[in-house]
Amino acid sequence: MRFHVLTLFPEMVLQGLHTSILGRACEQGLIEIEAVNIRDYTKNKHKKVDDYPYGGGAGMLMQAQPVYDAYKAVEERIAGPDNEKAQEGQEDELANANKSGKPRVIYLTPQGAVFNQNMAKELAKEEDLIFLCGHYEGIDERVLEEIVTDYVSIGDYVLTGGELPAMVMIDAISRLVPEVLNNDVSAEFESFHEDLLEYPQYSRPEEWQGKKVPQVLLSGHHANIENWRREQSIKRTKERRPDLYEKWKAKNE
Ligand code: 6GU
Protein backbone atom coordinates (compact mmCIF):
# COMPACT_ATOMS: atom_id res chain seq x y z
CA MET A 1 0.00 0.00 0.00
CA ARG A 2 1.28 3.45 -0.91
CA PHE A 3 0.69 6.71 1.00
CA HIS A 4 1.36 10.06 -0.69
CA VAL A 5 1.33 13.08 1.61
CA LEU A 6 1.04 16.57 0.11
CA THR A 7 2.49 18.92 2.72
CA LEU A 8 4.63 22.00 3.41
CA PHE A 9 6.49 19.96 6.08
CA PRO A 10 7.66 16.73 4.41
CA GLU A 11 10.43 16.07 6.94
CA MET A 12 7.91 16.09 9.81
CA VAL A 13 5.81 13.42 8.14
CA LEU A 14 8.73 11.22 7.10
CA GLN A 15 10.52 11.42 10.45
CA GLY A 16 7.39 10.56 12.37
CA LEU A 17 6.45 7.59 10.22
CA HIS A 18 9.83 5.94 9.67
CA THR A 19 10.27 4.70 13.21
CA SER A 20 9.22 1.56 15.02
CA ILE A 21 6.67 -0.74 13.39
CA LEU A 22 5.93 1.50 10.40
CA GLY A 23 9.64 2.01 9.76
CA ARG A 24 10.07 -1.73 9.59
CA ALA A 25 7.00 -2.08 7.34
CA CYS A 26 8.60 0.43 4.93
CA GLU A 27 11.90 -1.45 4.94
CA GLN A 28 10.04 -4.68 4.19
CA GLY A 29 8.20 -3.00 1.31
CA LEU A 30 4.77 -3.66 2.86
CA ILE A 31 3.95 0.05 2.75
CA GLU A 32 5.49 3.07 1.04
CA ILE A 33 5.28 6.60 2.42
CA GLU A 34 6.10 9.50 0.15
CA ALA A 35 5.99 13.16 1.24
CA VAL A 36 5.56 15.70 -1.56
CA ASN A 37 6.57 19.27 -0.77
CA ILE A 38 3.81 21.54 -2.09
CA ARG A 39 6.29 24.44 -2.12
CA ASP A 40 8.31 22.66 -4.84
CA TYR A 41 5.36 23.19 -7.21
CA THR A 42 4.73 26.92 -6.76
CA LYS A 43 5.16 29.07 -9.84
CA ASN A 44 5.74 32.12 -7.61
CA LYS A 45 9.31 33.39 -8.02
CA HIS A 46 9.66 33.86 -4.26
CA LYS A 47 8.41 30.29 -3.61
CA LYS A 48 5.33 31.73 -1.91
CA VAL A 49 2.37 29.34 -1.54
CA ASP A 50 -0.10 31.50 0.45
CA ASP A 51 -2.02 34.75 0.09
CA TYR A 52 -4.72 36.85 1.79
CA PRO A 53 -8.33 35.67 1.67
CA TYR A 54 -10.74 37.63 -0.54
CA GLY A 55 -13.30 39.38 1.62
CA GLY A 56 -10.84 39.79 4.45
CA GLY A 57 -10.47 37.85 7.69
CA ALA A 58 -7.71 36.40 9.80
CA GLY A 59 -4.62 34.72 8.41
CA MET A 60 -3.47 33.43 5.05
CA LEU A 61 -4.78 30.78 2.68
CA MET A 62 -2.83 28.19 0.71
CA GLN A 63 -3.31 28.98 -2.97
CA ALA A 64 -4.85 26.61 -5.47
CA GLN A 65 -2.03 26.41 -8.05
CA PRO A 66 0.79 24.76 -6.06
CA VAL A 67 -1.63 22.34 -4.36
CA TYR A 68 -3.14 21.32 -7.70
CA ASP A 69 0.21 20.87 -9.43
CA ALA A 70 1.59 18.80 -6.54
CA TYR A 71 -1.53 16.60 -6.71
CA LYS A 72 -1.26 16.24 -10.50
CA ALA A 73 2.36 15.13 -10.25
CA VAL A 74 1.38 12.35 -7.84
CA GLU A 75 -1.72 11.34 -9.81
CA GLU A 76 0.24 11.07 -13.04
CA ARG A 77 2.89 8.95 -11.35
CA ILE A 78 0.27 6.61 -9.89
CA ALA A 79 -1.50 6.22 -13.24
CA GLY A 80 1.84 6.07 -15.05
CA PRO A 81 3.42 3.38 -17.23
CA ASP A 82 3.92 1.01 -14.27
CA ASN A 83 0.19 0.85 -13.62
CA GLU A 84 -0.65 -2.28 -15.64
CA LYS A 85 -4.35 -2.29 -14.83
CA ALA A 86 -4.89 1.28 -15.94
CA GLN A 87 -2.96 0.48 -19.11
CA GLU A 88 -4.99 -2.59 -19.96
CA GLY A 89 -8.25 -0.77 -19.33
CA GLN A 90 -9.14 -2.94 -16.33
CA GLU A 91 -10.38 -0.01 -14.28
CA ASP A 92 -13.10 -2.18 -12.68
CA GLU A 93 -10.47 -4.26 -10.99
CA LEU A 94 -8.68 -1.34 -9.43
CA ALA A 95 -8.99 -1.33 -5.66
CA ASN A 96 -9.83 2.37 -5.80
CA ALA A 97 -13.29 3.20 -4.53
CA ASN A 98 -13.97 5.85 -7.15
CA LYS A 99 -14.74 4.21 -10.46
CA SER A 100 -12.45 6.46 -12.46
CA GLY A 101 -9.45 4.54 -11.17
CA LYS A 102 -8.25 7.78 -9.61
CA PRO A 103 -6.89 7.54 -6.09
CA ARG A 104 -8.86 8.83 -3.14
CA VAL A 105 -7.68 12.23 -1.92
CA ILE A 106 -8.20 12.85 1.79
CA TYR A 107 -8.21 16.44 2.99
CA LEU A 108 -7.46 16.71 6.71
CA THR A 109 -9.78 19.27 8.24
CA PRO A 110 -11.73 19.75 11.47
CA GLN A 111 -14.73 20.19 9.14
CA GLY A 112 -14.54 16.55 8.01
CA ALA A 113 -16.19 13.32 9.13
CA VAL A 114 -14.56 12.02 12.31
CA PHE A 115 -12.06 9.22 11.64
CA ASN A 116 -12.72 5.85 13.25
CA GLN A 117 -11.68 2.20 13.02
CA ASN A 118 -14.31 1.41 10.37
CA MET A 119 -12.93 4.14 8.11
CA ALA A 120 -9.42 2.78 8.70
CA LYS A 121 -10.62 -0.67 7.56
CA GLU A 122 -12.22 0.75 4.42
CA LEU A 123 -9.21 2.85 3.49
CA ALA A 124 -6.83 -0.08 4.06
CA LYS A 125 -8.36 -1.72 0.96
CA GLU A 126 -6.95 0.99 -1.34
CA GLU A 127 -3.68 0.61 -3.21
CA ASP A 128 -2.85 4.35 -3.11
CA LEU A 129 -4.07 7.10 -0.80
CA ILE A 130 -3.28 10.79 -1.14
CA PHE A 131 -3.38 12.98 1.97
CA LEU A 132 -3.64 16.74 1.58
CA CYS A 133 -2.37 18.67 4.60
CA GLY A 134 -3.45 22.27 4.94
CA HIS A 135 -1.72 24.97 6.95
CA TYR A 136 -2.42 28.61 7.74
CA GLU A 137 -6.18 29.22 7.75
CA GLY A 138 -6.92 26.63 5.08
CA ILE A 139 -6.83 26.10 1.31
CA ASP A 140 -8.58 27.90 -1.56
CA GLU A 141 -11.95 26.15 -1.90
CA ARG A 142 -11.69 25.76 -5.69
CA VAL A 143 -8.81 23.28 -5.61
CA LEU A 144 -10.53 21.29 -2.86
CA GLU A 145 -13.63 20.97 -5.07
CA GLU A 146 -11.42 19.82 -7.90
CA ILE A 147 -9.37 17.08 -6.21
CA VAL A 148 -10.71 16.06 -2.75
CA THR A 149 -12.79 12.88 -2.44
CA ASP A 150 -12.93 12.62 1.40
CA TYR A 151 -12.97 15.29 4.13
CA VAL A 152 -11.67 13.80 7.38
CA SER A 153 -11.13 15.12 10.92
CA ILE A 154 -9.46 13.20 13.75
CA GLY A 155 -11.61 14.69 16.52
CA ASP A 156 -13.36 17.78 17.81
CA TYR A 157 -10.43 20.06 18.56
CA VAL A 158 -8.34 22.34 16.36
CA LEU A 159 -4.74 21.64 15.34
CA THR A 160 -2.29 23.90 13.51
CA GLY A 161 -2.09 21.72 10.41
CA GLY A 162 -3.08 18.46 8.75
CA GLU A 163 0.28 16.69 9.20
CA LEU A 164 -0.39 15.10 12.58
CA PRO A 165 -3.89 13.97 11.52
CA ALA A 166 -2.43 12.44 8.33
CA MET A 167 0.18 10.63 10.41
CA VAL A 168 -2.50 9.37 12.81
CA MET A 169 -4.52 8.00 9.90
CA ILE A 170 -1.52 6.42 8.17
CA ASP A 171 -0.58 4.66 11.41
CA ALA A 172 -4.10 3.32 11.97
CA ILE A 173 -4.44 2.19 8.33
CA SER A 174 -0.95 0.66 8.04
CA ARG A 175 -1.38 -1.66 10.98
CA LEU A 176 -4.33 -3.24 9.13
CA VAL A 177 -2.17 -4.03 6.07
CA PRO A 178 -1.35 -7.77 6.09
CA GLU A 179 1.98 -8.63 7.74
CA VAL A 180 2.65 -5.13 9.14
CA LEU A 181 1.97 -6.43 12.65
CA ASN A 182 4.13 -9.51 13.21
CA ASN A 183 1.28 -11.10 15.12
CA ASP A 184 -1.63 -11.39 12.71
CA VAL A 185 -4.26 -12.20 15.33
CA SER A 186 -3.54 -9.06 17.36
CA ALA A 187 -5.18 -6.74 14.82
CA GLU A 188 -8.43 -8.66 15.31
CA PHE A 189 -8.61 -9.02 19.09
CA GLU A 190 -8.09 -5.46 20.15
CA SER A 191 -9.95 -2.40 21.30
CA PHE A 192 -12.97 -1.62 19.09
CA HIS A 193 -13.23 -5.18 17.91
CA GLU A 194 -16.96 -5.79 18.42
CA ASP A 195 -17.29 -2.24 19.86
CA LEU A 196 -15.59 -3.26 23.13
CA LEU A 197 -12.38 -1.95 24.67
CA GLU A 198 -9.53 -4.33 25.32
CA TYR A 199 -9.23 -6.18 28.65
CA PRO A 200 -6.35 -5.41 31.11
CA GLN A 201 -3.08 -7.30 30.64
CA TYR A 202 -0.24 -8.29 32.96
CA SER A 203 3.34 -9.50 32.59
CA ARG A 204 6.04 -10.57 35.08
CA PRO A 205 6.44 -10.35 38.02
CA GLU A 206 3.38 -12.06 39.56
CA GLU A 207 3.42 -9.46 42.33
CA TRP A 208 4.52 -5.81 41.96
CA GLN A 209 4.26 -3.22 44.75
CA GLY A 210 1.88 -5.54 46.56
CA LYS A 211 -0.42 -5.86 43.53
CA LYS A 212 -1.01 -9.41 42.31
CA VAL A 213 -1.81 -10.62 38.81
CA PRO A 214 -5.43 -11.89 38.75
CA GLN A 215 -5.38 -15.58 39.74
CA VAL A 216 -7.38 -16.77 36.72
CA LEU A 217 -4.60 -15.67 34.34
CA LEU A 218 -2.14 -17.99 36.13
CA SER A 219 -4.56 -20.94 36.12
CA GLY A 220 -3.87 -22.18 32.57
CA HIS A 221 -7.63 -22.70 32.19
CA HIS A 222 -8.23 -21.20 28.74
CA ALA A 223 -12.03 -21.09 28.81
CA ASN A 224 -12.02 -19.33 32.19
CA ILE A 225 -9.40 -16.88 30.99
CA GLU A 226 -11.46 -16.07 27.91
CA ASN A 227 -14.59 -15.54 30.02
CA TRP A 228 -12.72 -13.31 32.47
CA ARG A 229 -11.27 -11.20 29.68
CA ARG A 230 -14.66 -10.73 28.06
CA GLU A 231 -16.21 -9.66 31.39
CA GLN A 232 -13.36 -7.21 31.91
CA SER A 233 -13.82 -5.81 28.40
CA ILE A 234 -17.51 -5.21 29.04
CA LYS A 235 -16.89 -3.68 32.49
CA ARG A 236 -14.14 -1.40 31.17
CA THR A 237 -16.20 -0.25 28.21
CA LYS A 238 -19.16 0.53 30.49
CA GLU A 239 -16.94 2.59 32.83
CA ARG A 240 -14.74 4.40 30.32
CA ARG A 241 -16.83 4.63 27.16
CA PRO A 242 -20.52 4.53 28.10
CA ASP A 243 -21.34 5.64 24.52
CA LEU A 244 -19.65 2.54 23.06
CA TYR A 245 -21.17 0.33 25.75
CA GLU A 246 -24.71 1.42 24.80
CA LYS A 247 -23.97 0.67 21.14
CA TRP A 248 -22.60 -2.77 22.04
CA LYS A 249 -25.54 -3.54 24.34
CA ALA A 250 -28.08 -2.62 21.67
CA LYS A 251 -26.37 -5.02 19.23
CA ASN A 252 -26.07 -7.86 21.74
CA GLU A 253 -29.60 -7.86 23.13
CL1 6GU B 1 -7.79 16.80 10.27
N1 6GU B 1 -6.94 19.21 10.95
C1 6GU B 1 -6.80 20.22 11.82
N2 6GU B 1 -6.14 21.33 11.45
N3 6GU B 1 -7.28 20.18 13.05
C2 6GU B 1 -7.93 19.06 13.40
C3 6GU B 1 -8.10 17.97 12.54
C4 6GU B 1 -7.60 18.09 11.29
N4 6GU B 1 -8.80 17.02 13.18
C5 6GU B 1 -9.03 17.50 14.37
N5 6GU B 1 -8.53 18.73 14.53
Query: Level of helix content?
Result: 25-40%
* Rounded Rg: 22 Å
Count of discrete alpha- or pi-helical segments spanning 4 or more residues: 9
Global geometry: elongated
Mean residue pLDDT: 92
Bound molecule types: 6-chloroguanine
Strand order of the largest sheet: 2-1-6-5-7
Instruction: Please state the structural category.
Output: alpha/beta
Series of secondary-structure elements, N-terminal to C-terminal: EHHEEEHHEHEHEHEEHH
How much of the sequence lies in strands comes to: 15-25%
Largest sheet: 5 strands, parallel
Note poorly predicted spans. none
Cα(first) to Cα(last) distance is: 38 Å
- Record field, number of beta strands: 9
Write up this protein.
The protein has 253 residues and is an alpha/beta fold. The chain contains nine helices and nine strands. The strands form three sheets. A five-stranded parallel sheet has the order 2-1-6-5-7, with helices on both faces. Strand 5, helix 5 (117-123) and strand 6 (128-133) form a beta-alpha-beta unit. Helix 3 packs parallel to helix 6 (141-147) and helix 8 crosses helix 9. The longest helix is centred in the C-terminal third of the chain and has 19 residues, at 222-240. The radius of gyration is 22 Å and the shape is elongated. The two termini are 38 Å apart. The mean pLDDT is 92. The structure holds 6-chloroguanine. Residues 108-110, 153-155, 157-159, 161-162, 165 line the site of 6-chloroguanine.
